[in-house]
Structures are given as C-alpha cells and as structure tokens.
Amino acid sequence: MTPEQILKVPPKVLTQAQREFYFNEGYLCLERAIDETWLARLRAATEELVERSRTVSKPDAVFDLEPGHTAAAPRLRRVSNPVEQHPVFWEYCLKSPMPDIVSDLVGPDVKFHHSKLNFKWANGGEEVKWHYDISFWPHTNYSPLTVGTYLYDCGMDQGPLAVLPKSHLIDPMLSQYDAKGQWTGCLSAADCAQLDLTKAVYLPGPAGSLTIHNCRTLHYSARNDSDLGRPLLLNTLTSADAFPYTVNPIKPRHDQYVLRGTRARFAHHDPRPCLIPPDWSKGYTSIFALQQEEAVPLVER
Ligand SMILES: O=C(O)CCC(=O)C(=O)O
Questions:
Q1: What is the CATH number of the domain that holds 47?
Q2: What does the CA dihedral 60, 230, 52, 184 come to, rounded to 10 degrees?
Q3: Which ligand 1 atom is nearest residue 232's CA?
Q4: What is the model's pTM?
Q5: Ligand 1 pocket residues where CB is under 6 Å
Q6: For labeling, which of 50, 82, 145, 294 is most exposed (least CB within 10 Å)?
Q7: For residue range 106-142, what is the model confidence (pLDDT) as tens digits?
Q8: Which domain holds residue 131?
Q9: In contact, 20 and 84? CB cutoff 8 Å
Q10: Ligand 1 mutation pick, 154, 163, 234, 287, max ligand atoms within 8 A of CB
C-alpha cells in the first residue's frame, strides 16, 4: 500500500496527525504507549535472559556480548530474536497494542520480520553509528519499520535513539560499504559530513515509550557512560505486501508471520532502488561487532 492508501484506512490507535507526521518525517515517538503490566512482564523476561547469559562466555547466535562480559558481571550488547528465547516477547508481538499502532502506519495487514533486545549496558554500552536498516534486509517496498520499546526510563545520558528527520526521503540511498567495497553496516565519515546532523532529533522517553523509525530513516545512538543501562526492545514489522528478497540475516522462526489482518495476494513494489547487503546465507555478524570492527567470525545458523 502507498502512504496515501494507508492514510485513508481509519486508524486503530494513532491520530491522523501522528500518521502524517510519520510519513513526512520518517519517525514517531509515543510516550508511555505501553502500560505497566506489559512492562513488568517484559522486564522479568529480560532479567531471565540476562541470568542465562552468565553461562555464556563468548558471543553466539543468541547472545551478542561486549568483550568484558563475565558470569559475575554480564555485559550484553544484544539478545538476538528474543521472541524465540522467552514466550513473553512473542506474546507482546501478538497481543499488545504495539502491532495495532504499526497497522496505522503500514496498513491493516501486518507481518513480523525479526526482533532484538539491545542493551547498551551502563558505563560503556557502545555507540551505534549512523545507518539505515533496510539495506540489511531489502524488501519490495519501504513499509518496514522498527518499533523500540523502552523497558525503563531512558534519558539523554543513556544513549537514546536519535533519528535524522526526513532522511527516509534521501534518494538514492547512501552506501554502507567502505571505499574498498567492504560492508561496514554504517555510513562513511565522508557521507556523515555531508549530512546536517545538527538536525538530529533525540528520542529519550519514560518507560513504556515507543520509538518508531522507518527502514530508510537514518538513525544512531550514543555510547552510554551513565550508571544506568538502557534495554531497548526492537521489533521490525512490515506491511503484508512487502516481501524480503534477500535472506533474513538471523533466520527467525516467526519471519513473515501475519500479526494483523491477512496474507497479501500481491507484492507491492516501490520503484526506488535499494542497496543490497553481502550474502547473509554465508553467515551474519552483528551490527555491533561490524561497527566496532571486531574480528568476530560470522555466526552460522
Ligand atoms: O540500540 C540502538 O540504540 C539502535 C539499534 C539499531 O539501530 C539497530 O540495531 O539497528
């Protein structure tokens, strides 16, 4: 569906002004959209995963660990695909208001693509450099978006998500390969210098707030040098008429699951070209390891 067609469908949760803002600016921030009951369940599930990580000493397909991670003092960067690691995360995708909100932005038929739980641990949780998501997992159109759920309050010192408004309209897309043709998963310093990053909008928020960014929206988050961690649950959802044309890097079991509405009969194709990533069927390493230029082997799944 096109934005014009989506906007004609009556919304379930959002106001028409919020939907228009998303299409014009490429992002949305909804304060306290998720209630305490969901938050308590999501936090408890997160704690269970952190406990499990104590038995893991090196990064694997589930746990992406900072180099200083130990059993006594866990330091997680990410749990990949938490919906497969704890039932509460999948229930959140099925039953919470989150997919209803997404249906106001992609149309009534909504599919799941993947999820991740990014931690940005206290006292040194890493920066995520400017990048866009769609070239990690190209689709036939640009409906995919990522919803971030702040499990705890996130202030400016915790490295909130930051977006560059209207960057989803930049065409052609900028590259996420370096001058030698190596995939870096982020923009080059030269491309960043061409952008007016003073226009970046930071999206801190109280617990239960949602950040929503379109798959073409450039985004970033700073290092967390504060004493508080910043667990951010990220779910990527798409319109049902968007079909991936490369391998899903983390191969989730629920990939393409229809969360709302029905399966699409026809794919919708956006004519704007999309940057293609390396061949993930040969393996995938996390955005953190890539951007920190760690010599981590590709994780085979
Ligand atoms: O955790 C963050 O702050 C941003 C994460 C992100 O952009 C990503 O994982 O693609």
A1: 2.60.120.620
A2: 0
A3: 1
A4: 0.94
A5: 118, 120, 128, 133, 161, 219, 221, 232, 287
A6: 294
A7: 999 999 999 999 999 999 999 999 999 999 999 999 9
A8: 18-291
A9: no
A10: 234
